[in-house]
Amino acid sequence: MPDERLSVSVVGASGYVGGELLRLLLAHPGVTLRQITSERHAGRFAHQVHPHLRGQTTLRFTNRAALEPCDVLFLAMPHGETQAAIAHYATLAPRLIDLSADFRLRDPARYAAAYGQPHAAPGWLDRFVYGLPEINRAALSETAYASGVGCNATATILALWALVQGGLIDRAQPVIVDLKVGSSEAGNTPTAASHHPARSGVVRPFQLTGHRHEAEVRQAFASGGELDVRLAVTSVEMVRGVSAAVHVSLPPGLADRDLWSCYRAAWKDAPFVRVVHERDGLHRHPEPRLLAGTNYADVGWEYDPASGRAVLLCAIDNLGKGAAGSAVQCLNLMCGFEESTALSFGGLYP
Amino acid sequence: MQTECVECGAELTVPEDVMQGEILPCPECGADLEVITVAPLVVELAPTEMEDWGE
Fold first, then answer.
1. Considering only alpha carbons, which residue of chain B is nearest residue A263?
2. Among the partner residues B9, B10, B29, nearest to A279 by beta-carbon distance
3. Contacting residues for A117 by C-beta, under 8 A, at least 6 apart
4. Which domain holds residue A37?
5. Quick one: A301 and A177 in the same domain?
6. A277-293: per-residue pLDDT in tens?
7. How high is the ipTM of this complex?
8. Which domain holds residue B15?
9. Which residues of A are less than 8 Å from B7 in CB distance?
């Protein structure tokens, strides 16, 4: 661990991801939270926006214009805003961690296709490392710039990773991903869709084709050729959480032990990925409810040897492993902290 | 003593005083393993009643 605490600031700290990031950074023994910004809430205490931080800090939100240099700058603004001023932010800190979608994709054409507009700073795209430590640990240890991760993309990538690495996924097949997601994915700006009478109790299919996180997943697996991944997202009665179920066909002749072997090989050294695949009991598969507030990703599967059909599973907290948790894990790798620093919370039950 | 889970292949550390008929849970997949013989050490899946998950 570095000898002195690093100074860190968070730009755009008033959203749900920003609040989760503040909670984690305030408990980090290697950093001092220096500034937090919000244009809307400038002057207010952090706990007036994030009530769970009462007693944890006396920091107030400032305007972005008041930002001072620091060691690490987190950028948690709405998509599109970081790229418009990335050169400025790079003058404020030697290390940047961006939690938006602005620097996740390497290819400007892929970005334009996914987000419907050209990137404002395409020359910066390949300077960022995709910020999912489970697949980019070595590169993140050497980079100064880390991107954020999409929560649905994270759940999908981690669900698929072990069997893709094990060579068991035929890339000629379409890979269909059924995602159930909680309401916090939509952010903290109220809309008609999030109004309680309209949102409570829903099982609402809201994007079954063309989800923009597909580009992230395809990029993650691109080294072995194109993977035809299709995401279908449904909002369910949950605040935090993503549950991914990836439907694939596997080669004939496999046994459950072969899948165990792939999962062990993929995740034996990953501190935040747990294999959940039990024969009986209530909790035999990954469940997002158990992961709220944690940086864990639970992965598992169900496999039918007779048909070769498998459903690969992953559960995460969208605000944790799907956003702020992975960002702090990136901080740890980039700055020489032990990888799990400030991320050890194991969740609550029941 | 060491053996392997017959369900998932995980390595199992078995107490030296393990007894025939003893049920050992696999720490990775949770399968209940029954000790069939001690010397040599042989384990098999213990018979279980199927659950309906309340459905």
1. B8
2. B29
3. A80
4. 6-128
5. yes
6. 998 888 999 999 999 99
7. 0.72
8. 2-45
9. 256-257, 279
Mean local confidence (pLDDT), A68-96: 97
CATH of the domain at B36: 2.20.28.160
Domain tally for chain B? 1
CA–CA separation, A308 vs A249, rounded Å?
Answer: 5
**Residues on chain B bordering chain A, Cβ-to-Cβ distance under 8 angstroms:** 7-10, 28-31, 48, 51, 53
Active site residue A70: no
Given this model, what pLDDT does residue A115 score? 94
Contact with chain B for residue A268, Cβ under 8 A: no
Is there a single domain that holds both residue A113 and residue A224? no
Residue A333 within a domain: no
Q: How many domains does chain A have?
A: 2
Residues A156 and A102 in one domain: no
> The tokens of A20 are what?
């989760």
SS3 content of chain A, % helix, strand, coil (to 5): 35, 20, 45
Residue A1: predicted pLDDT: 65
Residue of chain B minimizing CA distance to A260: B8
Please state the pTM of the whole predicted model.
0.93
Please give the DSSP secondary-structure letter assigned to residue A125.
Answer: G
Residue identified by tokens 């214009």 is: A65
Tokens representing A162 are 């072990």
Confidence of residue A213 (pLDDT cuts 50, 70, 90): very high
